[in-house]
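Dear colleagues,

As part of the handover before I leave the project, I'm documenting each prediction I ran so the next person doesn't have to rerun anything. This entry is a single chain, and its sequence is reproduced below.
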Amino acid sequence: MTSSLEDLLPSTERALLHRIAVAQTQGRAPSFVAGVVREGRTVWSGSRSCVDGHAPDAETQFRIGSITKVFTAVLVMRLRDEGLIGLDDTLEKHLKGTGVGEVTIAQLLGHSAGLAAESPAPWWERTPGTTRPELADVLGERPLVHPSGRLFHYSNPGYTLLGSLVETVRGASWEEALRTEILEPLGLSRTSVRPVAPHAGGWAVHPWADVMLPEPLEDLGLMAPAGVLWSTVGDLCRFAAFLAGGDDRVLGRATLEEMRVPAVPPAPGDAEWGYGLGLQLLRHDGRTLVGHTGSLPGFVAGLWVSVEDGLGAVALANATSGPLPSSVAADLIRIVAEAEPRFPEPWRPLAAAEVDEELLALTGPWYWGTYAYALRVGPGGEVVLEPLRGAGRRATFRALPEGGWIGLDGYYQGETLRAVRRPDGTVSHLDLGSFVFTREPYEQGDAVPGGVDEAGWRGL
């Protein structure tokens, strides 16, 4: 295929615009703006407003609330990748005197530290940050409401602690680290801690009448890493592209993949929701989305990425409640994915230098007892072991420098697959976490633990 299909079809664009028009009307939002990114490139943006001729564009700032947490998580993961912290480190190791120092950095990232959901009164989103000048003011007298590491419990104070951790380890303010380590490398020039014109005003819409009330805009102080940021559809589409593919100037692809893995089981009743390391996970219309939602008085926001579809979407509105940008962003991905499904990469044979004759000899059928499996070589030299029929434990493996392969996913994640050889060098069997895979079901010999009946297979 040689034709260029970078732009969306007119029918797809119309369906996208219709979706946000419905969202603005039904959600009674003063204004609503959205965008779609495909294969790393923004391919559509659109908006609706209650004032003719004053609809926002892709460069109009809105407050994005808890989408800020993803930026904070990226800063923390950068520290980990540089070897300055470990995810299993206790907070106390790097940030002294919080009173909750035994919780781990991974628990804070994944909201399993057991911290309270909010800071003590007054309502932190509608009061100045000077109301809580110290971490003790953010945490209150009873900061832990659950045992650490046991369950998911969303916590805004937890991300205040992570922001303070970044400042302590980096020796710079959270805002400065954000600017130099994420915003500037990714070209997010319209993302900021304070609003920069043109920006939308935040409004509360009366639940029982079509009237509005302006919402206050507070600086949030220490709570900033949990939800202070302003951004635009243009910047967030670029950020979505980064979350999908990585950027070695900020975080590599492997670290972002790690952030997408569920950190703890979802809360009861939330089977469609999960949380990784700073990223929300959502099952929607049969696809897995990663990203985050956000809200602050006067604003709601949603950002989702479908890595498998090569798509991302952003939706922003300036109303405290009513519109549902999270659902809209998910729907925008669905609309494009169904109307213009992603073309698979063309099949190409391996380069001559990539052909491993010994590995090639291991491909084909293997048997765990009587279960039939197949081993094949995937792109990049990865090894895939999967059942030949029915449900079973499929896994992908990556070669280890010392020999063998390490499991990357599924039941065998972290387990080692080895080819066990006889004294003459021929392969006897595969060993996977002590499970024996032979070329024939219950093959005669010394490979199968417990031995194999010498009389062999028989009829009734």
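The radius of gyration is 26 Å. The first helix runs from residue 10 to 26.

All the best with the project,
I.
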